[in-house]
Fold this sequence. Notes:
The structure holds two protein chains of two kinds.
Chain A: H1 23-35, E1 39-43, H2 47-51, E2 63-66, H3 72-86, E3 92-98, H4 100-104, H5 107-115, E4 121-126, E5 152-153, E6 156-157, H6 166-171, E7 177-181, H7 186-197, E8 203-208, H8 212-215, H9 222-231, E9 238-241, E10 244-247, H10 258-261, H11 272-295
Parallel strand pairs in A: 1-2, 1-3, 3-4, 4-8, 7-8
Antiparallel strand pairs in A: 5-6, 7-9, 9-10
Chain B: E1 2-7, H1 8-18, E2 23-26, H2 33-44, E3 51-54, H3 58-70, E4 75-80, H4 81-86, H5 88-96, E5 102-107, H6 121-124, E6 132-135, H7 139-154, E7 162-167, E8 175-180, H8 183-189, E9 205-207, H9 213-245, E10 253-256, E11 263-267, H10 271-284, E12 289-294, E13 296-298, H11 302-309, E14 314-319, H12 329-339, E15 346-351, H13 361-372, E16 379-381
Parallel strand pairs in B: 2-3, 2-4, 4-5, 5-7, 6-7, 11-12, 11-14, 14-15, 15-16
Antiparallel strand pairs in B: 1-8, 6-13, 10-12
Helix pairs in contact in B: 1-2, 1-7, 3-5, 7-9, 10-13, 11-12
Amino acid sequence: MAKLTIPAQELLRSGHSACPGCAPALAMRLMLKGLGPRTIVSIPACCWTVIDTPYPTTALGVAMLDNPIESTGASISGLRAAADALGIPDVTILGFAGDGGTADIGLQALSGMLERRTNAIYAMYDNEAYMNTGVQRSGATPLGAWTTTTPVGEGSHGKAEPKKDVMGIVLAHHPVYAATVNPSFPEDFVKKVEKARDLSGPRFFHIFAPCPPGWRYPSDQSIEIGKRATDCGVFPLYEVMDGHYHITRKGGALKPVREYFQAQGRFSHLGDADLDRVQAQVTADWNRLVRLESET
Amino acid sequence: MTLQVMSGNSAQSYAAALARVHVIAAYPITPQTTIVEKLADFAASGQLPAQFVKVESEHSALQVCVSASSLGARTYTATSSQGLLLMHELLHWAAGLRTPIVMGVVNRAVAPPWNLGADHTDTMSQRDTGWVQFYAESNQEVLDTVLQAYRLAEDPAVRLPVMVTEDAFYLSHTVEPVEVPAQTEVDAFLPAREARAVLVPGRAARLGSFTGPDHYVEFRHEVAQAMARVPEVFRGVEEDYRSRMHRYHGGAVATYRVDDADAVLVTMGTMSTTARSVVDELRAEGRKVGLAKLRLFRPFPAAEFRELAGLVDRIGVVDRSFTFGAEGPAATEVAAAIYSGPHHPFLTNYMVGLGGREVTPQLVRAIFDRLLGAEGPGTRWMDLPQDAGEVTHG
């Protein structure tokens, strides 16, 4: 039997209040396995505000600070500045924010933190909409997805705009390390987190974070949905370090995007023509990524 | 102790440096900018071993201070006007998380129209956020109050953020001699901040959290109680400062020639200097007038005003900002304070100095003339054309 590479220590305890099948909960569990107990995490208004459970309890085995939705980047700059000024040794500063709090309202603070070269990790768990407020579209919601603010009906066909390229925005700041991770591939996830932990400077994770109630699929399907997303190329796993791209999972030929899209109610209104267009875009994006890997 | 000629902004910078702040968050806005510029020089020269965080907005500036303070750092930032308005959300966070941040605010008018002049609308808009607010009259008072503010903010009975304000240009860019205490003197007055072990690496804890109504009320009540303890703690801080540095700025409300006065003006910030000189002129003419300089606005020194109400017949509250649909905010506070006491002198409100309009001795004299004459209650907008009309309510 292969040796497990994932640390056994659990820093997310049972009794948290995530929905069944919540990938953001899995993402935090894996993130903290990789970073270890000497982590201070700053969390804005998002699902994780609630998942951690209300006062006076906490589900995390590490220190946590709440911050308003748009300021996670600034909060981790402040924590890092204090840790350095006070000489607190061997501490990892983590920002853990949703896609709305990162790609939309928190983009300025994220950009500021990256540009300042803050020695901290920023992780965006991307469930592709404002899920904590009940499934409203964000800049990270994919083209065509149903949300409560991109309804499906006459004159509306889900989200009309493509998903914001957050990795592209982050990479334009030249962080020391940036990677995509997916809880469906836990060993790849933790390996990247451990690598990032041992680096110094601004680091970023884009976490794929399926949401059963928001994406409208059964709660026992999150791991399967995540696997399909990566295996069809919708969410490729890669890392960028010192400008070099490295695709960390290549499973041969990409699977058809239909298998991913048709498993989710939020895309159930999309027809063959829609999916053909999505397939063409995903294939083009994948080819671009492969090219970037070979060129860098 | 050395005597140096400096601006109010430099007084802020020197005080923050003397307080040995760990973390400074800096973002420019006129007329605050020279505060963080000087701190940048102090940090760059190695004179001040602080983390100098150059943020991308005032909102982030205060978030940096809130997070750094949550981990135990002594923090400083400064802003003005629009920048303070952008911070508004974080002002609530700073008080709610009980972070003893000290912030310099250069009082400047808010847009539109754009205006850089002295005006208290920016800080008055923040009076309900749980911050202690001091308004300074001189550059010396700026420096002394910033140092006192750290002691007050970090006192275990208080643990609240404090803003120390100064009028745009009249203090921020005007130089005057300022006595600067030696580092050893400041260190003796202001020891290192006591660690507050909530966020500790390796220990499970959450600062902030969320609650239903079962606990939320208790959190708010704790902030209210902390604010209520400020006057007593501040008295001790100011007395200790006086015994060490031999300077005293008169407590929460600094009164001047009020004991046998018929009429007293309540002023804030730099207009107090002008008003004091007018009091002397009128006294020389045999008119019984006095001055009450409102130095501490939050918590509001209600007891001092109830006492003042027992001494005088007429009080005129001079405001440098206006609450649309009501009156000047200081007037509202003074009226509310006096109402619960036994003495109810005649009270009226004068609007002056918005957007940096000069508050001249002639204007103050005109206010005293009206207050001592057949003045009616309400708010008088001074220094407007005769036909501009009164703004009245009720």
